[in-house]
Here is the input.
Amino acid sequence: MSEPHSIVFVIDDDASIRDALRSLIRSVGLRVELFGSVQQFLQQKRPEVPSCLVLDIRLPGTGGLDFQRQLADANIHIPIIFITGHGDIPMSVRAMKAGAVEFLTKPFRDQDLLDAIQFALERDHVRRLQEAEIATLRERFESLTPREREVLALVVSGRPNKQIAAEIGTSETTAKVHRGQLMRKMGADSLADLVRMAEKIGIPTTKS
Here is the structure.
């Protein structure tokens, strides 16, 4: 269903609700950790695995919607599923516009929550893969010499080797060598592959 080390975090101040959610989530083989408040959640170090947050709207101290905003402000990305017994349309619209995966009003169907959790975990898994890929590409880019970076920007802008050589003041043969070296270092198999990599890490290009 999902990665074996995925974690579902639950924040709800009602112990009976927490226990019920733990039983439900564990019934599909997922790991779950429970918290009675946002403060308790923040005190625990979270492992770097796909995760999501089942979050009650009304909590002691920091409420669910305020915590959603705090996470966004801190650039912490974790998919959120809101649950509440006191929801209204403006509240749900605010939550969803801010990026919540789902907004469920108690009592809700168990399957609706499980479906939302699965979707949230898959979203977080994809995000982590994308971030890891970008980190790898940036490391490769950092391994390039200043001249190779200059040539890369020209290559992904569509310049032929002859024009690249003229722009950087070298021979066409040398330009080809630089091009080959940067392709190898970036792990690019084709020009299209290199362009895709450049776009992902925001390498600036010059106009043809």
Q: What stands out?
A: The radius of gyration is 24 Å. The first strand starts at residue 7 and ends at 11.
